[in-house]
């Protein structure tokens, strides 16, 4: 039987989060006493109970160590999404909106893509977020003069569904929409997988490298990135599931167990019991933050009425 440290090799990469991959790489670097990972820049700040960490992967070694392409990864961590009050929700929206503006840069139009399956709560974050977006592209198309005076941003939204329902890759549908709309940037919102249960629904990750839907749960689909879509792709994601095998391994804390048990559990994913409430709250946070980031300082009351 292989030693305990070998049992987990095939399970530990079940994560979409750059911060978790950095933590793993840092553990290896600590054993080698070499400090921060070469090719990875890390910084963090705190705003009340919210932590904002930024990882910049700047070379091939950083890519190899973290298993992520070169680019910027921002992680917003907060106590909970299950019982948010109005103040906590709006503060989180403001923080996320600021990060969206920063990572998107100066643009004049955007297409928001809500990925996932609305019928499955843990996979519905993207769809619910897209429903909260205040779309305005049709106004610009129908009355350009009015649009110019309105102060709105040119924003369109699309939920391409899942292949089992459409028979088509979501990325292909979005690519087709991009050819028609010509947005400056595509913002993709999706549910993610985490390595640690403590991060479920308590983390929002942004990146400027795009996203590979389903990669964290072993169901990789066509990638949303600039090379395929044709314009810059910003990804926003929230971890909603964790691999059961990782939970068992963590609970055992390295104690001897049957490796075949972990193999059987790998591929089974669990989510928090309040997942229905959580995805509604997180979808609202992301949708409203997108509105704030692009349309400006609309009040959240106005968003609730208009979106």
State the main characteristics.
307 residues; alpha/beta; Rossmann fold; 14 helices
- CATH topology title: Rossmann fold
Number of helices: 14
Percent helix: 40-55%
**Oligomeric assembly:** single chain
CATH architecture assignment name:
3-Layer(aba) Sandwich
**CATH secondary-structure class:** Alpha Beta
The named CATH superfamily = HybD-like
Round the Cα radius of gyration to an integer and report it. Answer: 20 Å
Determine the N-to-C terminus distance: 57 Å
Q: H/E series, N to C? A: HHEEHEHEHHHEHHEEHEHHEHH
Biggest pleated-sheet summary: 9 strands, mixed
Question: Would you tell me the structural class of the helices and strands?
Answer: alpha/beta
- The percentage of residues in β strands lies in 15-25%
Which consecutive residue ranges, at least 5 long each, have pLDDT under 50?
A: 4-11
Describe this structure in words.
With 307 residues, this protein is α/β, with parallel strands linked by helices. The chain has a single domain (4-306), classed as HybD-like (Rossmann fold). The chain contains 14 helices and 9 strands. It has helices at 4-7, 18-31, 60-66, 86-104, 125-131, 137-142, 144-150, 163-166, 170-181, 226-229, 244-252, 259-265, 275-295, 300-306, and strands at residues 40-47, 50-57, 71-77, 109-114, 154-158, 185-194, 203-207, 233-243, 269-270. Strands 1, 2, 3, 4, 5, 6, 7, 8 and 9 form a 9-stranded mixed beta sheet that branches. Helix 5 crosses helix 13 (275-295) and helix 11 runs antiparallel to helix 12. The longest helix is centred in the last third of the chain and has 21 residues, at 275-295. The protein starts with a helix and ends with a helix. The relative contact order is 0.18. The model is unreliable at 4-11 (pLDDT under 50).
